[in-house]
Design goal:
26% strand, 6-stranded mixed sheet, 4-stranded antiparallel sheet, alpha/beta, 235 residues, Rossmann fold, 10 strands
Amino acid sequence: MTTPVLRLIDVKRTYHTGATDVPVLKGINLDLNPGELVGLVGPSGSGKSTLLHTAGLLEKPDSGEVILDGEDCLKLKDRERTLMRRTRLGFVYQFHHLLPEFNAIDNVAAPLYLSGVNRKEARDRAVDLLERMGLGHRLQHQPMTMSGGEQQRVAIARALANRPKVLIADEPTGNLDRETTASVFQQLINVGRTEGLAMLIATHNLELIQFMDHVVTLDDGRLTAFSDPLTSTPA
């Protein structure tokens, strides 16, 4: 039986605005297995980013458990949680946030430099990932000389540099046109599966649902199984 690499157990989160309480997560339960690609969909403002931030140890829930690679992360000190986030999680966002003065290799290698990996090993890892993302011809280029799709592929490679156990992505193709979206997403999946990653990806693009192993919907603070309105049969 496969042991989940990431577990959210009865996770709850409420925001307090003045005298108003806004419950966002109302008891989230989610298991993510190694090599599994789970899509997260839901209306704008439903709390998808809050869920991703909680799963990615960027935000603490009010209650519940976040188990990453067997560790109960909410019981860890801030420094230990930061180390878990740096070594076992990778993040991809809608906007790439690449360092403009660095070329593609050094952008991807940057997390490895920060982790103390020697320069040659870090750059070799970066080159390998960039080539697998179809960017072998753009290794020495800075972000401003690349297309939007190329920049996002560099960002994906950077997220994978530290060999994380889990990749968390928030609208990773939301800033790309339709044709580029399909290409970038397919490369993300191919490299992610080769690396054996568990992947949790939030998207508004229902065309990407076909690539997912499982899809869940977040609405009114709760997760339910996804039902595609184009294929569902009315009761």
